Structure prediction request, 447 residues.
Amino acid sequence: MQQPTQKRPTGMLGFSIVWLGQIISVLASMMTNFGMTLWMYKQTESATAMGLMQVAFITPFLLLSPIAGAMVDRYNRKLMMMLSDLGAVLSTAGILILYSTGHLEFWHLYVAAVVNGLGNTFQWPAYSAAITTMVPKEQYGRANGMMSMVEAGPGVLAPMLAGAVLALSLDGPFDSFALIMLIDLVTFFFAIGALLLVYIPQPKQTTEGEKASGSLWQEGLYGFKYIFERPSLLGLQIIFFFGNLFSGIGFTVFAPMILARTGQDSLIFGSVQTAGAVGGILGAVIISAWGGFKRRVHGVLLGWMMSGILFALMGLDAGPTLWIVVMGVAALFFPLINTSNQAIWQSKVSPDLQGRVFSARRLIAWFAQPISPIIGGTLADFVMEPAMQSSSGLAAVFGPLFGTGPGAGMGVLIAFVGLAAALGGLMGYFIPYIRNAEDILPDHDEG
Prediction:
């Protein structure tokens, strides 16, 4: 019964097939997200309204993450990946129908974000755990570097392609925005087809995995128990918690700041996004070839320090050239942070526990995500922007560096949260069980 299945591609070949399907699908999804960002801002001109999109996406993850992680460990991981892709198909199809019939309202995008968030709840732990069973340990860095390309690579082309399609003069309800969403729908099936082609081994159950068996809730909660019993792993995630809190505030107001300062110039906004994507993919290529620091914790802590400092510079009132250059350089460090951290966890956690442990790990790191957009949007709309509109008060202090008028208050906010994220990385070096995490924790295949 298993022979035909085992003849399917696996190892790095199988992983590369899945990776190719994902990178095609993500490219189209980023084009859709680019179009939705412009559409939403035109409808609301509110950083708070745009920030609530992130809340709608992340909340399902926070609520269902423990159950999703346990299901990834308990059931077929390929099936979990396919279900997440099908959820994305449903949300995009719904938005396309509403838009084409003239019934789309901005709150519908919140509903779509919830559906996408549900799919992502299963997708990330399933893909992360599948890498461990598909590729040998010495290839973790390469595989994680390739996955970083999925996150960053399509962003090089997506804004330009989306901008080109949006510039098409298409009449009727099925216009250029609808065309982007249709392309997105088609590419989802490339991702699903790639999964159908390959063989993804299920992990062998370990003694620790047997002890952790129980109901779905018990198995899901075990992921938190596992982390809290290991201060080094918990410390790493606390670094990510604070880094994500501050960067989440910054990225909430990042797009509105650029659009406000440029009179909603989609070309400049797209150029900055493209620069970030180019930096991200260059960083991923470097990591894939280099493999990162031998002590991977340096990749995590130094990465947060450098990316935070550079992101803080984005708030300065220096125009598009600075935004493009700094965003490109800052993004070089994003793959270093994520692949270094991922390799630590894949090496230390037994494969049959990775679904629930990785879900718990991401929940801890992302726990601030629902509140950071609200904090960022509220501070921008009601505090920082009004305070930077005149030549007195806060504007008198920060105006020489950040300017005044639309977008200046958001620029000040970006500078402060960038420096705070960098400080979080620095603090990790002063805590021994974080700094020495790789020495304290044995690899799962040792002994």
